[in-house]
Amino acid sequence: MNVGLIGIGTVGGGTYKVLTENFQEILHKTGIEIKVAMVADKDIDLAEKIVSSAIPIVGDAFELVESKEIDLVVELIGGTGIAKDLVKQALLNGKHVVTANKALIAMHGEELFAVAEDNNVQLAYEAAVAGGIPIIKALREGLAANKIEWIAGIVNGTTNYILTEMKENNLSFDVALKQAQELGFAEADPTFDIEGVDAAHKITIMASIAFGIPINFDAVFVEGISNLNQKDITYAEELGYRIKLLAIAKSDQESVEIRVHPTLIPEARLVANVSGPMNAVLVKGNMVGPTLYYGAGAGAEPTASAVVADIIDIARQSQLSTKKLIPSLGFMPNKIKQKKLLAIEDVWSEFYLRLTMANKAGLLAKITNIFASHDISIDAMIHKEVQETNQDPDIFLVTSKVQESQINQVIKAIESLPENKDKIIKLRIEELK
Fold first, then answer.
1. Closest Cα to residue 283, out of 125, 105, 136, 101?
2. Is 317 exposed, middle or buried (0-12, 13-18, 19+ CB in 10 A)?
3. Is the separation of the CB atoms in 127 and 11 below 8 Å?
4. What class, spelled out in words, does domain 2-132+300-335 have in CATH?
5. Superfamily assignment of 135-296 in CATH?
6. Domain locations in the chain?
7. Alpha helices in 169-269 (DSSP H)
8. Dihedral of CA 170/396/156/280: which sign?
9. Catalytic residue list contains 340
10. Helix axes 300-317, 10-21, angle to 10 degrees
11. Phi, psi at residue 128, to the nearest 5°?
C-alpha cells in the first residue's frame, strides 16, 4: 500500500517516522508492506531533510492526490480550505484518506463521509480527537454494544496546562498562557484553544459517534477560559472541586446537549486530577458504566500513532473480499437521525457563583431570600473575612441542580441589589457519576 503524505511538519514527520521505524511491526500486523511513496509540502527543502532521498517530494499537493501510484492519502495540513478540496478530490479518485484535521471533520464531515461512501473508500480520523488516545475507536467499536449516556473530556492540552499552572503555582491566566507559549504548549495565536473552539470541534465529532446524530458544530455552546480568575480556582478548591475546561455531550431519548466551558469537578474524580498538557475522556455507557481514557492529546509521535493506526485498519480491511467498512460514525448512514438540540438556557446543572458585595447587615438574608423565591437550594456558602485591603469581601456558593435560565434570573436579581459591587461569576459543576 503506497501512502502519500500531505504536510511533513510535526505530525507529518512523526507519521513518516512511525511508518519507517515500525515497518516490520506493521507488516506483521497487516500482511501488507505499507510505505510512504510520495510527500507533498510547500517547504520542499524541509521535506528533503526529513524523508529519504528516494521518496518523491512535490510542492503541489494536488499532484499527489492525482497520482495513480498512491493508494492512501494522509492529510496533515489542517484547516478547512484547501485541505477540504484535497480530501474530497482524493476520495473522488478512489483513494482512502486519513486525517488529523478536527476542524475539517467537525465542519464538513457529513459531506466528506458521503463522498467516501459513494466511492467505497474510507475517511478515517482517529487522530482528530485527543491525539494518541484511541477515543474514536473506543466510542465507535469498543463501546458499540452500549447506549452512550454522556461524554465528558479534557481534550485540549493547552488549556489544561494553563489551568494546572494557575492551580499549582498560583499564576494568573496571562502569566500561565505566556509560559505555555514559551514551552511550545500554546500557539502564538492561542485563540482557538483558550476560547474553547478546538475542544468544541472535538466534542462535535464525539457526540455524533456516541449518539448517532448528524455532525453539527453550530449546536455547541462554547465558553473559554480567558476570563477565568485565579481566585475562583482557589475558592473551588476550598469547596472540594477543581476547574477544568470540559467538553460535554449528554443525550436522553428526546434531546442532546453539547457544550464546552470551564467546569468544577469533584477533586476525588480521576479526571479532575489530569494535569499539564495531558488529555482524558470519560464515557458513560448504559451497560459498561463509566470508562476513562487518558494519554497525550498532542505531539508528533502520539498523534502519528493514531494516524498510523487508521492506516493499519484500512490496510487490513482492504484484504477482505467484501471490503465492508465500519460506518464512519459508528451508526449505519440511514440511521443517523437529528435529535432536539438543547440551548444552554435549557440545560440543568449545579452552579458555583462568586459575588462581590458591600459588607452590610442583612446581606446574606437578602441573598438567601432571592434563592428561596426561585425555589433554588444553596448547598454551600462561604463569606470571606474582610481584609484591611479589601472592604468588599467575596461570597461564593454552590447551588442545587437548576436550569440555567433560572439561575440567570437569580443572578439578575442579586446584581440589582444596592450592595452588589461587580458582575457575578458563574461556573457550572459536573459530578460525573
1. 136
2. middle
3. yes
4. alpha beta
5. Dihydrodipicolinate Reductase; domain 2 (3.30.360.10)
6. 2-132+300-335, 135-296, 347-429
7. 173-182, 191-194, 197-211, 230-238
8. positive
9. no
10. 60
11. -75, -20
Residue 119 cell numbers, joined: 466511492
Q: What is the pLDDT of residues 209-238, one digit of tens each?
A: 999 999 999 999 999 999 999 999 999 999
Neighbours of 375 (CB within 10 A): 9
Asked if the domains at 2-132+300-335 and 135-296 fall in one CATH topology, the answer is: no
Q: Which residue has the cell 472540594?
A: 240
pLDDT digit string, tens, across residues 66-102: 999 999 999 999 999 999 999 999 999 999 999 999 9
Nine-digit cell string for 403: 436550569
> Which sign does the torsion angle of CA 136, 289, 269, 233 carry?
positive
**pLDDT number for residue 387:** 56
Active-site residue, from 84, 95, 202, 244: 202
Buried (b) or exposed (e) across 336-365, using 16+ Cβ within 10 A? beebebbebeebebbbbbbbbbeeeeebee
* Residue type, position 362, single letter: G
Mean pLDDT of the chain: 94
Whether the CB-CB separation of 58 and 38 falls below 8 Å is answered with yes
**C-alpha cell recorded at residue 255:** 434531546
**Sequence-ordered list of residues with C-beta below 8 angstroms from that of 23, at least 6 positions apart, any chain:** 33, 34, 35
Question: 50: which 3 cell numbers?
Answer: 526529513
Distance CA 407, CA 88 (A): 45
- Model confidence at 389: pLDDT above 70: no
**In this structure, how many other beta carbons lie within 10 angstroms of the beta carbon of residue 239?**
18
The cell numbers describing 22, all together, are 515500525
Q: Tell me the C-alpha distance between 307 and 157, whole Å.
A: 19
- Look at the domain 347-429 and name its fold: Alpha-Beta Plaits (3.30.70)
User: What value does the mean pLDDT take over residues 352-374?
Assistant: 93
Q: Find where cell 532521498 sits.
A: 53
pLDDT at residue 386, rounded to an integer: 60
Which residue reads 495565536 in cell numbers? 189
Instruction: Please determine, for residue 108, whether its predicted confidence score (pLDDT) is greater than 60.
Output: yes
CB count within 10 Å of CB 266 equals 16
1: DSSP letter: -
Q: What is the 3-state secondary structure (H, E, C) of 44-74?
A: HHHHHHHCCCCCCEECCHHHHHHCCCCCEEE
Q: Is the pTM of this model over 0.85?
A: yes
The angle subtended at Cα 294 by Cα 186 and Cα 148, nearest 5°, is 115
